[in-house]
Amino acid sequence: MLRPIRPRSRRRTAVAAACVVLGLGLIGGAATGAWLTGDSSARSAGTPYAIGRDAWHSVPVDTLFPRTLKGVGAGPGGTDRTWNRIAVAPDGDCAGGLDPLLLTTLRPVGCERLVRATYADATRSGVTTVGMVFTAADAAGMRALGTRFTGQKLTARTDLMPRAYAPEGTVAAGFGDRQRASWTVRPLTEIPVVLFAVSGFADARTVADPQPAAAAMAPGAATDVAQAGLGHEAKGLADRVERGLRGTVADLAEPPE
User: What is the Cα 172 distance to its own chain's centre?
Assistant: First the structure.
């Protein structure tokens, strides 16, 4: 189960990833979520795909979804943004967290695990769920999915919006399907992950005409969604979580000195 774990040193993190790639598994039950230790020289045996596929349980949750994310220049007009994590969803399968049509669209690459977290902006006026689908696909499968998303413009389809995670007792408690305002979905090709983000208003207002992030960020966009910067929220958070994941995987796949 995905849990907040205090970030370890680079050496300890590398050791853990190497052990996962070698198939030794995690020690302990789901209640404790322990890390393995071992010979750090084994790290070179891991490929980015192997390490990336296991990152949902081998990398601390605070690394996958940092408690605070800074978005320098990420807001409308190049304004700065700060996002604070509200809650992390229990890891699970995709059936519980994706709309049926999006689940069908991702079926060719398979779903190993779905992890999600919800953030609020510094003003607590907007909420955004960012998530990662860890797939069973190889590089060719992920490239094919990426080509399909681009060629068929699947990111712009409202019936392929990801679902929000709305933890009770938080500012995002009313963030349901009808409150989704802007989103992005992006298959990664260097790592077997489909990354997504979906944003909405924190006051739980219904959005009649949601817009993909690219449309909401377009020059001259004048909808409520665009004016509130919710396209920037979805893209900005997705960008930073993706950047963190890529950096972590690249570090773990680096051959030992």
Answer: 17
Alpha-carbon separation of residue 113 from 85, 107, 154, 227 (angstroms) = 20, 13, 22, 34
Give the count of beta carbons closer than 10 Å to the beta carbon of residue 200. 32
| Model confidence pLDDT, tens digit, residues 173-232 | 999 999 999 999 999 999 999 999 999 999 999 999 999 999 999 999 999 999 999 999
* pTM for the model: 0.81
Q: Classify residue 209: in a domain, yes or no.
A: yes
For residue 155, give its domain range. Answer: 66-243
Q: Into how many domains does the chain fold?
A: 1
For 144-176, write each residue's pLDDT tens digit.
999 999 999 999 999 999 999 999 999 999 999
Residue 154's identity, in one-letter code, is L
Q: Which residues pair with 182 in a beta bridge?
A: 199, 211
Q: Please, which residues have CB within 8 angstroms of residue 4's CB and are 6 or more apart in sequence? A: 60, 61, 62, 88
Q: Which three-class secondary structure state does DSSP give residue 245? A: helix
